[in-house]
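For the sake of transparency, this paper describes our internal protein records without simplification. Such a record has a labelled line for the sequence and another for the backbone structure tokens. Nothing more is needed to write down the fold, since each code stands for a local backbone conformation. For reference, a complete record is included directly beneath this paragraph.
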Amino acid sequence: MKLWGRANSTNVRKALWCAFELELTPEHIEVGGAFGGVDTPEYRAMNPNGLVPCLEDGALVLWESNTIVRYLARQYGAAPFTPDSAVAWAEAEKWMDWASLAFAEPFKQLFWNRVRQTPETRDSEAMERGRLECARLMGIADDALARRAFLAGDTLTVADIPLGCLAYAWFSMPIERPELPHLAAWYARLSARPAFQRAVMTPLT
């Protein structure tokens, strides 16, 4: 098994974290960003989008980070981490897609301007709009986590993977954050996991 993508990508972190939770050890090949390599004919033959991550598992080639997480869980996982019914999958995938769709755009505005731009080149208004919208959305997760330890139940599941990777940046950036005690407790539980530490808690760049 090979996983292509730079380790500082949120989407690559998802795939690596899932793999490590399942005690898989894919060969990790750094491409994308400063590493380049995603515009080569060989890489584009695997992923015509030229994005990361990309997973090779035998003859299977997959792109799209949430799809990779779902595949790894179904192929190599077991309940409770891997949902065991259509209802449980729907509950988990709701949170996976919410994090990657509703949360992703405001997070991009916040992260890009706060971490990847200099004070002189930042769009401060876009950064603040992103921060406020991320805070509102994190409130939705906090409300759900008031009733259970993890997003889809009492144990870690694939539901937690996408938002967990984004939460690492949310809690690491020097920004104003609302008091969301249930979200903070959930993040502390994630941060105690060796697989999360190994795959996700790497420098923000």
